[in-house]
Write a structure and sequence with these properties.
It is a single chain. The chain is mainly α. The chain has a domain at 59-180. 78% of the residues lie in helices and 0% in strands. The protein has 9 helices and no strands. It has helices spanning 2-12, 19-26, 30-36, 40-55, 68-94, 97-106, 108-126, 130-153, 158-180. The chain is elongated. The N and C termini lie far apart (54 Å).
Amino acid sequence: MLEHARRLIVERGMSACSLEEVAVQAGVSKALVYKYFPTRDALLKSLVAHEYEILLAHGAWTRPDLSFAQALEQGTRDSFAYLQERGAILREILGDGPTGRALGREDRAERVRRTWYFADKVAKTYGVSPRVALIGAVMTTNVPGVASGALTRNGFTPEEAARFWTIFVLGGWAAVAARYGARPFAK
């Protein structure tokens, strides 16, 4: 049912996604859909959770056995691949005004946990303060989601995007470490 709802939203938009239409698309009874998803919001929450499971399946960002550079490249490649293949659904749902904001808040704790883990890895690798590491971690982990559509439209593969972004970020962190060291932001 989730896959039918995903396809329905991507092909026809959020307004086309009703529990009744999901039942039609899935070829099941409305009662079966309502058994698992009593409301449209329950369906959308489950769909967002399912998509995040797919996105985070590899977990490169939080693997302690990987160096910072390895985690960055693998995590970015996985993110770009997911966004190229399936990212339209999250853009549709999370970009849908109040519904998207409400659903986006629900996964906030997990996103914060991953960002702080990444920031901690940056701070240890480059000797920068937690505050400096956090601003860079937020920017580093959010840019792929914003850029993926334009990169795909311009013919870049997830591997090309990840390779470039890894080099760009590592060079940036080297410059940040040289400028800020273990100090907080200073002019």
